[in-house]
């Protein structure tokens, strides 16, 4: 951030609150706002109309504005900016704010509010936005003085982007937008008091390096924090892994921080992680968790999680440490800064020389790899979903694509079958699991990178949760490719019903689906339908070669399950593979925790 | 998270920016994450009343107590979080107003006990007293229990305020 440059003090001219907002956003380097107008933000929209530095992207629903801003933020590393009106505008944004909170995505969401004298009167389109968004934002503000507007905006950017990133809401009463005051940014353009701890404790880092250097069976478990820390952190992670020869696994959110094509990468861990990653996590003797948070989808049964390993946890957020899993060496700090120190200490102490050989450990890992856990039974007549993604991967692997997903089976298959070699190329809703995330997120990424290939890997159920955004794609001529893996089921729900509820498919089928090709054409886009493996490659090529938006309806096998799977209440080494058959959860407790 | 280990009571001091909504943030954190609040007091302190001091008495396993402190510390307007129970000896006091009605011997006995507890009558009628009492929660509990037999009408209590012993401050 360059707040320092932006702390201009100009007391000579008075500006309206709305003008101040645009000036502050411009000074803060904002290029794009995702938004939707309404009564309580009309003064701001009027100022947007009068300028041309900041581009406004009109979405079709406020939830999509927040997800588009998330996609923009994740793909660029810059904060995403959202502008919505009061009342329903703000409440529609709540899902995206919560999503950004859970996945630590920096967002600034400016919400309109009724005029100050009307607050609390149940005025038209009034909602208690700061009350509603308090638990789903990192911080929020209700601006009561027009002269505070510049400072609040600068502070909001600082809070959203520093420490563990997250969403910040600024609730702006309409009369504050109209009233005039001097434009002045307080000296505390950062924040009066908020100072996240960036540098880890040196003693703890040294202890961590020592423990790692003695490990016979070490593993690095990296997460989205590496990506949030910036591209440099990804480079340092690669350097540290190469230096130490350790295997690396990644959470869903962290994919791309370590190259999937590298031999030291074991694939994703967790509920639908690989056989080798989960077994290595279970059997390791020392674990470096960096920028991840021992989520329940990662750990499986917590009391059986990696027993007997020494656990090192590097996180910028103290509250992530010892929350789910007791660790031995906690390090509070930014991933990049801590990795820099770890590499320096490793070299300085000549740790590579004293390190026990890892050959036996790698032999064991290669033995697990030989299970080829992602294998599936292919078909000559039906497109298997895994096959669809394998072929997609084949055609996009050298094209530096940005991939977003919705939520469900297709998301897990995408995580398993699409290899990410760089950070910021994978946009997915991990913590909140928000269906409808992928299309707007792809739109956000495409806005940031007009020339990049942006693909939303979707399911036919998820895509309908924000399908109105086809309008946004059409309006801005965004060449997003929507790759719908259509199995006519809410596949993950159906899979769980098969595994845990004796196959009673309660409301989990997709009835009355639109004709996606006709729908695409109705928006003036290209639509492609493919339902036979023989035509799959040609269809994918047609999609990728089309110079514009495409909706691909890829009809895949209806009842395929996503494996490997750590079933309810099980440990990492009790994974199910295809063909293991259906096993009911062990008890009610197991049924409840997953 | 599974509860492991004994439940402990901790008194935690929190210094926050004295701004709108800060108390709602703290209380929302406790209710949203399922932590207990046994008592909570808050008032502006220091120069210009720019800061407030919250004293919260909570209970949980040591893992939960650590989480509570880390979660409090993560709130943007929170400056300092101190666990008085861990940091060393501390004094905690509560204030109570206790209304007692009665005549004759019961009235005399109430007044006598009040004296023994160093409670002050801050309102009197011929048939009632309002006593003001400060002390530990246990002392106040004991006083209220005794007054039950002597015509207790109602009591209002503040919850604990606490400071560490010795010269150092937050």
The low-confidence parts of chain A are 1-6
Separation, N- and C-terminal Cα atoms of chain A: 40 Å
Query: CATH homologous superfamily of the largest domain in chain B, by name?
Result: ACT domain
Structural class assignment of chain B: alpha+beta
Number of domains of chain B: 2
Strand order of the largest sheet of chain A: 3-2-4-5-7-6
Oligomer: heterodimer
How many separate domains of chain A? 3
Number of helical elements of chain A: 24
Strand content of chain A: 15-25%
The CATH class name of the largest domain in chain B reads Alpha Beta
**Class by SSE composition of chain A:** alpha/beta
Q: What fraction, in percent, of the residue positions of chain B are helical?
A: 25-40%
CATH homologous superfamily classification of the largest domain in chain A: Thiamin diphosphate (ThDP)-binding fold, Pyr/PP domains
SS elements, strand count of chain B: 9
